[in-house]
Structure formats: C-alpha cells, structure tokens
Amino acid sequence: MKKKMFIALTLALLMTLAACAPAAPATPAAPAADAPAAGDAAAPAADGDMPELVIGLFQPATGANGAGGRQESLGTIFANYRQPTVEIGGVMHRVRIEQVDNQSSTTHGPAAAAELVARGVHIILGSYGSAVSIASSDVFADAGLTAIGVSCTNPNVTRGNDFYFRVCFLDPFQGQVLASLASNTLNADTAYVLTLLGDDYSQGLAHFFTEQFQSLGGTVIQENFPEGTSDFSGFMTNAMNAGAGVIFAPTSAEAAALIIDSAGVAGTDIPLLAGDTWDSPQVLDAAVRSGVSVMVTTFYQEGGAPEWDAAFKEWLNANPAQLANNGGSDVIAGFTAMGYDAYMVTLDIFQRAGVPYPFDQDAIRAATWETSFYGPVAGLIEFDEHGDARRDTAFVKTVNVEEGAWEFYAAQRL
Amino acid sequence: MKKLSVGNSISILVLIIFFVLTIVLEQFIAPTDRMNMLLVCLRQGSIFALLAVAMNLLNGFTGLFSLGHAGFMLIGATTYALFSMPLAERSIVFTWFSDSYVIRISFPEVLGNLLGGPGMIIGMLISIILAGLVTAAFAFLVGLPVLRMRSDYLAIATLGFAEIIRAIIMWQGLGPVTNAGNPLRSFTRTADLNVTIGGQTFGLITFTLAFLSAVCIFIIFLLVTSSYGRAFKAIREDEIAAEAMGINLFKHKQLSFCISSFFVGVGGALLAIFMGTVAPLQFRAAMTYEFLLIVVLGGIGSITGSIVGAMLFVFASMWWLRGLDSGTFLGLDRITIFGVNLGERVFVSGFRMVVFSVIIMCIVLFFRRGLCGDKELPYYVNKLRELIARKSKPKPEAGGADA
Amino acid sequence: MPDNVLRVDDLTMQFGGVVAANNVCLEVNKSEIVALIGPNGAGKTTAFNCITGVYEPTNGRVSLNGEVIAESFPQGKMKDLYKGENRGKYTQSVKLTPDRITYRGISRTFQNVRLFKALTVFENVMIAKHMRAKQNVFSATFRLNTKEEKRMREESMALLEEQKLDHLKDHIASSLPYGLQRRLEVARALATSPSLLLLDEPAAGMNPQETQEMAEFIHEIRDRYGLTILLIEHHMGLVMQISERIYVLDFGKMIAQGTPDEIRADQRVIDAYLGVAEDAAN
Amino acid sequence: MGAYDLFRLFFPYILSGISIGGQYALIAIGYSMVYSILRLINFAHGDVFMVGGLFMVFAAATFPLWVAIPLVVFLIVLLGFTIERVAYKPLRTAPRMSVMISAIGVSYLLQNLALYFTGGLNRMYPAFPWISDTISVFGVSTRRVTVITPFLVVALVFALVWLINNTKVGIAMRAAAKDFDTAQLMGIKINSVISTTFIIGSFLAAIGSILFFTNFPAVFPAAGAMPGLKAFVAAVFGGIGSIPGAVIGGLLIGIVETVIRGADITLGPTGLGLFNRSLDIAAFSDAFTFVLLVIVLVFRPTGLFGDKPTDKV
C-alpha cells in the first residue's frame, strides 16, 4: 500500500518536472509559440506572432520586504498595462513580465534569480531590498544580463558590478538629506538611531546618517535590534532616557509599524525619521493610529504628476487583488513610481540599442550606460560611472495625523 | 582488496555517470536556458545533501537529536568568506568598520598569485577545510556541556546555542572580525571554479560542488561503516548497553558531534560559494528544521536517503513546484471552482511551501521510515536486479513488489 | 589477595530516602561461579549496577583484582539523608564510568535483554570488540586498520560459531527468538574479553529444557574462557546446580551466604522467600 | 544618583518586562503540561499562539469583538486539539524523536499556512477598547494591558492549579505525568487526559496571544517562533511540569530580557555610566534567554521546582 502511494507520489513529482521543463532548445526560436507552460502569466495568446521582450521582475512578495516588493511590482505591472508593446529596430515587440519571488532572502535569492534567468528574460528589474540585490547580482552578471535596481539604495549594489544599474538615489545622499533635516530643521542635538542587526540597508543608511549628523555637531546613539523583535518599548524608553531629539529608524516597513506603535504608547513627542522604506501605507496607518510625528524621504511625492496618479489609482482600484498588494489603500508609494519609471527606461534602452529580438545584450548594456531619459514620474535618469542614477532631489514628507495622509514637506537638494 | 559486490560496483558506476553528466551538461547549457535550473538545483542539491548527511550522522546514526545545524553552518560559511575574500574587497565589505578589519589574509588570493589558477583552487580548498576545522572546534566547546544532557534537552540546548552563536557573530563589538552580521560578499565566486584552457572556458561549477560534497559524503559513509560508526549506532540503539560494552559515551558523542560539525562547516563553506553572500540573518532555526525534514524525508539512518531527500527538496522547492507560486501549474490554473480561479486565487505566493509542508507531514505521519528507511544504494541496486531477474523468468510472480 | 577477583565492601545504595542496598559485602574468587539471589526488589540488580558503574554507590567500595573501581561516601544532600552504616569508613571518591570498568574486565548482561536491536547479530558482537581495537577514528575511517578490523571480524565470527549463532550473523538482533537473544547477549559480553562476567537473570523466561542448556552453557563458557562468573537468578534449580557459592539478599541486606547446601537449609532464606512463593516455584 | 532616579531609570523596563513575562508564562504553561505528560517539546505551540493572533485579525474584521474573542479562543482550542489528534496521537508508540519531528513539521506547516494566507505581510492586530488604551503608571506611559497581564495570569494560574488539584481530570493529569504507563493501566483514559491538556494549553495560548498582540500589534508568520522558544525556556527554567515554576520562569525571562534591552542606556554613558561606550548589549536580548537555558540545564537540569526523573536500568 505504502509503496504504491509512494510510487504515485514520485510519479506526480516527475510529471511536474516534465511539465515545468519542456525539452527547451538551447536558443528559443519562436518565443511566443512554444513559451513554456510555466511562464506566460500576463499575455493572451492572441497576438502570438509578435516577438517578445521579457522583463524579469525580481522582487520579494514574501518576507520582511514583501510589502515593499509588491508595491514596487505594481508600478512596473501598471506600466506594462499602459504600454504593452514597443517598437525596437522597426519591429513591434510585445512586452511580457516574468515574476519570481525572492522571499526577501539572500539564501533563496540567488536560486530565484537563476530561475528568472532560466525563464529567458532579457533584462532584470529589482529588487526591493539591497541585500537580495547584492546577493543575486553575480547570477545576472554571469548570465550577461543587465539588471536595473529600482529602489535598492545601498551603494554596494552597483559597486564593482558592470551589469547592475539603478534608477533611484543612494544612501549616502539620503543619509545626508535626513541628517541635515534632523539637525537643521528639527534642531536635534542627539539622534537615537535604531537599526536592524545584520541588515545592509539599515546599517548602511544609519552609517551615512551618522557621518553627516556628527559632522553637523550632533551626537548619535545607535542601537541594534535582532530580527523578529516585537517589543520595541524598551528601545523607545532608551531613546527617551538618552534625551534624543530625533529617532532615526531606517528599517523595513514591517518593523516600522511596531516601532511607531511603541513610540505612541510610550507617549514620546520625539519625531521619528526614516528613509524610503517607510513610504508605505502600513507606516501611515500606524502613525495615524498612534499620533506620532513621522518624517520620511521618498523618491516621489504624490501629486508630482497628477494625471499619472489618477490613472494609476483608477487601475489599482479596478482590481481588489492589486489593491491588496498596495496594502489595501490607494496611497501611492515612492517606489511604485520608481517601478513605473524603471519599466519605461527599460523600453527606452531597448529602443536605443536598436537590435530587435533576440536582442544583443552587449548593445543593451552599452545603451544603458548612455541613458538620458526623462522618467514620466520621477524625473531625469542618467547613469554615472558606477551605474547609479544621478539624483539630486529627495522629497521629504510627513504624516498628517488629522487628515490621515502623507503631506509634502520639502524637496531636498544637495 | 575484497572483490566488489555487483550492487556496489553498479552503485559506483551510477555515481561516475552522474559526475560525467554534470561535466557534459554544463558545457551545453547556458545560464539563460530553461534547463539551467537543472544545474543550479544540482549544485544546491549536492550541498544540501552533504549538510543533510552530516546531520544524519548525528541525528540518525548516533541518535543525538541536535538542532544546532544553522549555527554551525553559519560558522563554516563565515570562516570561509573571511579567509577567501580578496583583500581589495574588504574595505568595501567592511564599509561600516572602515578599514579596521582584523583578518587580512585570503588563501585563494595568496596562492593564486603564487601558483596561478590551480593555486586559487588550492586556496579555496584550504579555506573550506579551515571552515570545517573552526566549526568543529566550536562544536567541541558546545559539546562539553550539551552532550551530557538528555535527548530532548539536548535538542533545545543545541537550538539555543545556534542562536547564541548567531548573536555573537552579529555582535557589533566583533564587527572588525565578522562584519557584525552585515552580509559578507565578494569572496570567491562559483565562476572561479571554471577552468580556462587555451581561451576556452569549461564550466566545472556543478561538477566541483557536487564532487566536493560527494567526497565528504563518502568519508562520512566510510566512517559510519567503520568500527566507530558501529559504536555510534550502538549509542543510538541503547546508551546503557553501549556503555556496558566499553564504549565511552561522552567521547564517542563528542567525536560524532565534532565530525558532523566539521562537515556542516564544510557544507556551510560550499553553500557560501554557491550563494555568493553570507548573511547571518538567514541562518535561523527554520533552516535547521528544513534539514531535519530533509533527513526525515530520506529516512533517518540512510545516507542514500539523505541525498535523495536533499535533491527532492531542492528540485521541488526551487524548481518543480515553483509554478504553484506564480499561478501556472500543470494547466490546473485555468480551472475555476465555485467562481474561484485556481491560478489567480489559489496558486499565489506561498502555496508551494504549503503543499510542501503537507507532503512532509504525510511522510512524518505515514511513512515514518522515509523514502529509503535505513538502506543504502547498493541495497536498492540489488533489489532492482532481483526484480529484473524475476521479471525475465518465464513465469513472473505477481505482486512481487510487496515482498 | 590474588584469589579475590571481585570484592565488594559495605556497599550501600540509597535513592533519596530509600535504601536499595544496605551494607552489602561479597567476594568472588577466581574461576568461581557465584550466585546472588533474593526475592524481587531485594537489591540484586542495584548491586550489579553499582559494580558496573551505572550507579555511583552512596557508601562503600568495589574492587577488582585488588584495584578499587568504585568507592564513595555520603556527600552533599546525602550527608543528612544517609541511613546506612559505616559512615566515615570510606573517604576517597573513585568513580569510573561503566565503559572504564568494562575495560578493566567486568562485562555484563541485562535483566531485560538490551541488545542493539536494529543492528545485525554480527554487528552486535563487533561493537563489543570496538573497545580493545588498536585504532583511532582516522585510521578506522580511512581503512588504515585493515589488519585490526580483520582480527575483529575473525574473532567475532569465531565467537558466533562457538555460540552457534554464525548462521544468523546477518539477521537483525530483534528478530531472533528470545532464547537466542539471551545467548547473543552473552556472546556480546564475552566479546569484550572480560575476566569477570556478570549475568543478570540469564535464564529468565526460559522453559526447563532451555534452562538446563543455559546451565551447561554457563559452565562451558567459564571453562573455555577462564572466566569468573557472578549471576543473579530466580531459577533455584539452576542456581543450586551451577553455583559454587551463593549470596542471599533481602530488602537490600545480605542475609546469608554459603554453599548451595548450606543455603538450602538456612531458615532466614526460607523465611525471606515465603512471601514470594511463586517466584521460588519457577 | 538617588533611589528615585534609579527607579525612574529602571521602572519602565521592569514594567514592560513583567507584562511580557506574564504573556510568556501563559504560553509556558502549555509547554510544561504537555511535556510533563508526553515528554514532548511541542514545537508547534508557539505557532498556535501566532495563529491565534492571525485568527483575531480576520475575526475582528468581520465580527464585533464580543463575538470575535470567544470565537478565536474556541478556534484555537480546536486547533490545539486537532493537532494533537492528527499529528501526535498516531505516533504514541513511536520513538520520542519521531514525535518531536512531527511537532517541528506542524510548526513548519502552520508557519507556511500563515505565510500563504497573509501573503507574508504583517497584519495589524485590532485595537481593543479599554485594554489597548494608553495609561500612565508612576509617570510611565504604557498600555492598560501591561498592567492587567500580571493580574490575569495570577488569576488563571490559581484557577488552573485548583483544577489540577481538585478535579478528576486534574488528578488524572497528575497521575499521567508521574507515570504514563501505570496511569493507563489504572484505567485512566489517557487520550482524553492528553486532549484536555492540549485544550487547556491552547486556551492559555489564545489568552496569551490576545494580551501579547494587543501590546505588540503586528502578526507575521514567524511571530510565534521566538516567544514560543522563550516560553519553553521559561518552562524548563521553572521546572518542567510545575505551573508556578513556568510562571516564575516566564516573568524572570521577560524582565531580564527587557532590562538587557535597556542595559546599554541604563548602564552606559547616558545612564549610570558603568561603561563609557555602547557595548551593543541590546542585541543579545534574545540570545540571553538561551544562555540562561544552558546554564540551567547544566547546573540544575530539573529547573527550580522540577522533579528529578529516574531512568530504570
């Protein structure tokens, strides 16, 4: 009995293998026609004659950065919805998006990246979360694929890797903006910095913030919390005991909600400051609930491109699943906008490279270096010698507790 | 030398074919091929196999229910990364500890400069072995208090030690040594394992990782079939009787613990090569549980089982069942039941792991002996031959599989 | 005192407030077969466990061939709890683990057979050979000990042949019938090359014919391996037939000792057994 | 520094330590009871606690609170009962390791199910009127639940101890804990005793989850893992099988953990000034629990109030 069940199980697994891995030729000749069963997520088979440009969306859907990853993906998917085709070298191409969940994990990330590469994508977008991007960058480089980081702000993503680019600003810049905000605008002498132990993003941004804040004459007290911490009340007490004028907490949005809640309970009036990751409906909710003053830097401030905002919201609200991925509200996060721009800049790159399907990866990379594209939402994108976008503006926004909404505070330039 | 039995020689043949295949396949499959997942899974699968076998040595063969796997893997991976990272990369990796990093030697780099390509490989090997040794040394210290405890307390104490190890490695005060939990990267990469002859590069990544794992597994196999292996099994079967037969419990437990940890360290180092990044945050208890479930899947006390279990685990979770997450699975996603489209609503992120854990629960509950029980490959080869022999006879027996 | 293979002095074992063995003294001379009898719960197995190092006695001394292998006195909490005699007589603390004691030459079987159940008959014996093999992990793993391994195999095979278990060598131990399991346990104990063998109820659960075989078997192994044997047994027939001397325990105390004939006639022994007639009838 | 200042410095930590410790205690009792009868570390217990949080998130969205709370408690009790019946009962005669593996398997399954149903995202726990309110205790601002927890825990523990000492099922439980096989021979329906144990344990975990998540309102798949492990350590520390032991262990771990979290500030340059630079001790708050565990297991394996187990040879 048992043996038979076991054999059945094994057979089922083998059949799965067969289904997922059709005898694919080394070079896929007619992409749309024999696209693997596990693949065509978005496109209808109707216009099957058109060659395909496949964009690999390397984003977390689960794990610590799951929420952010989903929001960022929404921007790209929306862009694909708005502009599903592109003309490259005189040939119309259908653009298809391939998604893989990297689980916010540096362990599972590379395998997920390899999976994406093996699905025959032509360019990679992502990932939300610098650590996973760094961990997986070699996989893309080894495959000779260009990757464009959308919101991974850690400098090490592109450093020493000619295949990785990014469209967002970097942590040194963000840290400077936040530090001068803390010092000059909020007049804080002491900053309490709370970071997640062992997290590249958290440690990096804190590092740049500290550097700048100290050079402005302030004192920094930094503490780390281990992952999975639920109880932040002790840390909030610490901040108050330390006499901090500002709490800087560059963490994931998940931790942010708990930190804000603890701050609210502790009854502190110290403003909380954070980077791009806090630009999330979760943070907004928590801040409104607990009445704490929260300020964040972001890539894009809602209202910057009103007509795009409206179109996106309409699209978002049309599908409850999409709305759920945005955290249940139609507030636009900065990285959603970046996801949109990254898609658009990708099409621009392929157009400038000018080689139609099956594309020339070297030409694509060359074209990427020469990008000068005005992103429809977040502005001009040009890459410097590291492959980082030259960005000189960060938006600062704050939570308006009464109205329960983000409020534009300032556009910081350096 | 004794003459090899047919079962053994066929098993060896199977292994040789496997290794030749890894080499041949890698030359023909480009990273952008769909089938490249086969190679990626083989790489990760071999490393997982080693890690599972090492755990089996402890949990299955010696009967010590230890849950410190993730912690020891972390030590191995960290040690490897620290001793193989090129010096030039360190100031970038240790950014937050601006140039105050302590370990300033990279074996692959030193030997690579001295001897060229082969030197680099030797350097990597040295780092790998060092990773194993450091892990074993830590295991020795952990073993001192822990191995005197009763079975379930041992489990929880080793689990605790894994967390303590992680906390220490992530301690800010040790930052200049360990980078305080910030991911280590830019050490040797898998591509370094490729060999270039006359401008032509031969992909050997899969082969090298599989081969190194296989060598380690083979050593463990030799160990468990040796006199010491029998002593370990005696301890598993009955501690009091084992002691009465003159087996020093503590010494043998400590031996098994350290040897197992040595290979866990080596496995951690290989995993570091495979992943390219060592992030201590990932080495949590959940990781230990995964390996435990692999061992159970394959059969506690079977090396073959652990290998098969690891391969199945990796292939299924990384490849075959991924469709369950992304909304396309065997065409089932087009089915709509009660107005719910399976593809849109059921096959979403996380479903794969649910299916997976249900399968594992079924094995734990209904196939307690796992896939292979405590039998090894030659046994199955012999069984298969018997079966074929019976089939080829003029009057085949019906229902022979139930024998 | 070269004749004294085993000597137990004033052995007292107390679990919390319960005195399981009280002031037990016994001697076993070279090549003797000595029986330790007594009603259930008299402390026989406790005495065995103290001799083989499983328990640390509360007070008293055990020596093998004139060498102390266990000595203890009430310590810690026991200082207050101790109910036995000879307080202060023993002052040193010698505590050898069971494996060290086995190494010195005491081997044992267990009341309820403790074989390595999932292993084969051959492996069971080979495990007992492990202790005295000249090898280390390294040489064993990398097969640098082929000579030693070969010797172990041959000796184990020889032992199995002598015990007429050789045809069962690849059977799983737990699949053997009970009588053979007992015999295998003895074979395994012999494989450690002991000078003193402790048998804990070797004939338990056997029918009269098997018991008779066991009696002959014990004699045979004593002569063949030059052993000294101490056994616990309830089968009075067996005890009277094979033992040269008998010690009788009751409620942890030694109540009588002597030759089988003396014990048969001893009123205290008869009294002690009256309450457990069914045991004696076996 | 005067006594008042010291009080001002440490009181907030101790207050939240008592609260979180009380919540650990409620989970620890479940571990302790199950272990004392089945000798099983029920690794899934922490995840049952997490699922309790998740159920509440979904229940509170659909039902009014007076329906949602009893409903969730009932569902969690049902879950605990089902887990025992499905995953542990069939393995009653199997080696202990198999049962423990089964427990780990259940934990893995529950976490993956939670991952699936939440999409791997944090879910915010609903705020309850009154107990979620912020109040001020000796000048320290906190939630009312912090103050309620210790009292509630003491009340529940008294009820439980009464139950165990005075009811038939309680006596059966104690008998089973003392000697499983003999209890069975004496005609005790061992399966119903075990089920009752799981029901009580799950009930307390459900209450614990309400208190815990009201205080720290984010539910995520791994939310139960760490509190679960800590609660188990608390049970070991107090002596497995001892209910007062579990409570004292839980409180101690809770207090020490929060005090350690604040040690860098309270003892460091901005506090008492015992050392002049940050030692990053706060990061050790979780690891410390395990250090405590190892110390207890080495020096007093039976915990504070535990009985010594005897192995028969």
Task: Write up what this structure looks like.
The complex is a heterotetramer of chains A (414), B (403), C (282) and D (313). Chain A has helices at 2-20, 66-82, 109-118, 130-142, 171-185, 200-215, 233-241, 253-266, 281-290, 306-318, 320-325, 334-353, 361-369; strands spanning 52-59, 85-88, 91-101, 123-126, 147-149, 164-166, 190-196, 219-225, 246-248, 272-274, 294-298, 372-375, 379-382, 393-400, 405-413. Chain A is α/β, with parallel strands linked by helices and 414 residues long. Chain A folds into two domains: 38-169 and 319-383, Rossmann fold; 171-298 and 394-413, Rossmann fold (3-Layer(aba) Sandwich), CATH 3.40.50. In chain A, strands 8-7-9-10-11-14-15 form a seven-stranded mixed beta sheet. A six-stranded mixed beta sheet of chain A has the order 2-3-1-4-5-6. Chain A has a two-stranded antiparallel sheet with strand order 12-13. Chain B contains 18 helices and six strands. In chain B, the strands form three sheets. In chain B, strands 1-4 form a two-stranded antiparallel ribbon. Chain B is globular. Chain D has 313 residues and is mainly α. Chain D has helices at 3-38, 45-62, 65-88, 96-118, 144-166, 168-178, 180-185, 190-215, 225-238, 243-267, 285-299; strands at 123-124, 134-137, 140-143, 218-219. Chain D contains eleven helices and four strands, in the order ααααβββααααβααα. Chains in contact: A-B, A-D, B-C, B-D, C-D.
Overall 3D form of chain D: globular
Q: Give the name of the CATH architecture of the largest domain in chain C.
A: 3-Layer(aba) Sandwich
Radius of gyration of chain D (Å): 20 Å
Order of helices and strands of chain D: HHHHEEEHHHHEHHH
**Count of distinct structural domains of chain C:** 2
Q: Label the CATH architecture of chain D.
A: Orthogonal Bundle
CATH class of chain D: Mainly Alpha
Q: Which sequence of strands runs across the widest sheet of chain C?
A: 7-8-9-3-10-11
Mean pLDDT over all positions of chain D: 87
For the secondary structure, the number of strands of chain C is 11
Number of alpha- plus pi-helical segments of chain D = 11
The main sheet of chain C comes to:
6 strands, mixed
Number of strands of chain D: 4
CATH superfamily membership of the largest domain in chain C: P-loop containing nucleotide triphosphate hydrolases
Largest interface comes to: A-B, 62 and 64 residues
Distance between the termini of chain D: 60 Å
Rg of chain C is: 20 Å
